[in-house]
Amino acid sequence: MLTRRNVLRAGATAGVLAAVPGGLVVGSRSGTARAAGSPFTTPLKVPAPLRPVRLVGQDFYRLTTREADVTMLPGTTTRIRSFNGTMSPLIVARRGRPVVIEQINRLDVPFSMHLHGGHTPEGSDGHPRNQVDPGGRRIFRYPNAQDAATLWIHDHTHHGHAENAYRGLAATYIVTDEFEESLPLPKGQYDVTLQMRDADFEENGALVWDLHGFEDRHTILVNGRPRPFFEVAARKYRLRLVNTSNERLFLLQLGEGEEFTHIATDGGLLPAPVPTRMLQLWPGERHEIVVDFARYGIGRKLVLNNAYPYEGESPEVMRFDVVRDADDPSSVPSQLRPVPDFGTSEIEREFTMSFNRQTGEHLINGKPFDIDRVDIRPKLGVTETWKITNADTQFGIPHSMHPHLDTFKILDRNGKPPAAAEAGLKDTITVMAGESARIQLRFTDYEGLYMYHCHLMGHLQMGMMGQMKITR
């Protein structure tokens, strides 16, 4: 039900944001952060890659979506919706070696598995028409014919995806390739995935679900653990940051503003590393950074903070404890992966994103999602420019755009070239209220019905999605 409180809460995320150098945003909410003792009582769980059944030319996995009881808050048990009974599982794939996943649904709700960032055939993209009903199963085939990147898996059922992701159904999926492996970046145990999200809990540990209740989710989880600590060696680490929240922005800052190196985003490696002291991570986005803990020495403790907490909320996300020495042959090259040339755009499209207060719907070009309507018909191999305008100036609501199937380049924001941190390939872009951005993209290889939508999942669930029929 739409209420004035819900409308104001929907706009609160963007209302006080102001631009800062590097295309980042910073702001503060009214009120002061809640005073508390050290929240870092739980060790980080670093996920080990799932082991596939290795077949001729491909890897096979079985992912069962089911409920499970896990410990998230110390001393309590939480019922989640899971892949194989765990939080934040990890799959590591290799370019050119297909992955086949059999998804078995033992939930009492439908589930449609989407590999976010995946270059996949129509039948494996997770369209709501292909959802797996309770008791059913489906085969998903991922060719992995794409550059190395950090992807993730989540639900795309109509009207159910936001709750399924909130209750735990999110997996990380890493694609590697020879080019990336040839670089001297941190590897093995020093290449760590950090899946970040927020949650609201009852005192007994039960998750509280409210589609509009994102500002009540004050517990920050990293790999399913509340504000954990991570014991690290005095050397460089590659950290893969994945935001699986429904709506939360993480504005990440290390310590009191320590410098780290931004090396990759949604579509993989940046053209060149970007030194930075703050990084914004919107829902659905992935960023990769390198932190050199040798700069601090054994005994140092560094807190990763969210510089944009909700009112009354502590800013801490997690803590890194430097506890030992280690050899470090790794380094960050001055050049990473060049961005491909998409050529000259032959088609230009405009997408206006807005909120309809009367109906409570989020709209693209004045329309809510209709599973029986095709909104655009791109052609394979034809380069397009999309202008995305956020018309929600009254409430200050941010929106994002995520086209399925292929990544894109950001051409400009409000007519200005993108910052270095957005110079690589992306698959999700957030546009603030009253602003616009232009992206360039070209769909390749696969025909069929695909989606594009806002990745603030409440907005998506309230209608902010369109369909495109890609043809030759």
Description:
With 472 residues, the chain is mainly β. It contains four helices and 32 strands. It has three domains: 161 residues, Cupredoxins -  blue copper proteins (Immunoglobulin-like), CATH 2.60.40; 130 residues, Sandwich (Immunoglobulin-like), CATH 2.60.40; 124 residues, Cupredoxins -  blue copper proteins (Immunoglobulin-like). The longest helix has 9 residues. The protein starts with a helix and ends with a strand. The relative contact order is 0.15. The N terminus is likely disordered.
SSE blueprint and pairings:
Elements: H1 4-12, E1 18-20, E2 24-26, E3 53-55, E4 58-70, E5 78-83, E6 90-94, E7 99-105, E8 113-116, E9 137-142, E10 149-155, H2 161-166, E11 171-176, H3 178-182, E12 191-199, E13 219-222, E14 225-226, E15 229-233, E16 236-243, E17 250-254, E18 260-265, E19 268-276, E20 279-281, E21 286-292, E22 301-306, E23 316-324, E24 347-356, E25 361-364, E26 383-390, E27 399-403, E28 408-413, E29 429-431, E30 436-442, E31 448-453, H4 457-461, E32 465-470
Parallel strand pairs: 4-7, 6-11, 12-16, 15-23, 24-26
Antiparallel strand pairs: 1-2, 3-4, 4-5, 7-9, 8-10, 10-11, 12-13, 13-14, 16-21, 17-20, 17-22, 18-19, 18-21, 22-23, 24-25, 26-30, 27-29, 27-31, 28-30, 31-32
> For this structure, what is the CATH homologous superfamily of the largest domain?
Cupredoxins -  blue copper proteins
CATH class of the largest domain: Mainly Beta
Number of strands: 32
The number of helical segments is: 4
* Uncertain stretches: 1-37
Biggest sheet details? 7 strands, mixed
Number of discrete domains = 3
What fraction of residues sit in β-strands? Answer: 35-45%
N- and C-termini, Cα separation? 42 Å
Decide which structural class fits the backbone: mainly beta
Helix content: under 10%
Overall shape: globular
As laid out across the biggest beta sheet, the strand order is 14-13-12-16-21-18-19
Which fold name corresponds to the CATH topology of the largest domain? Immunoglobulin-like
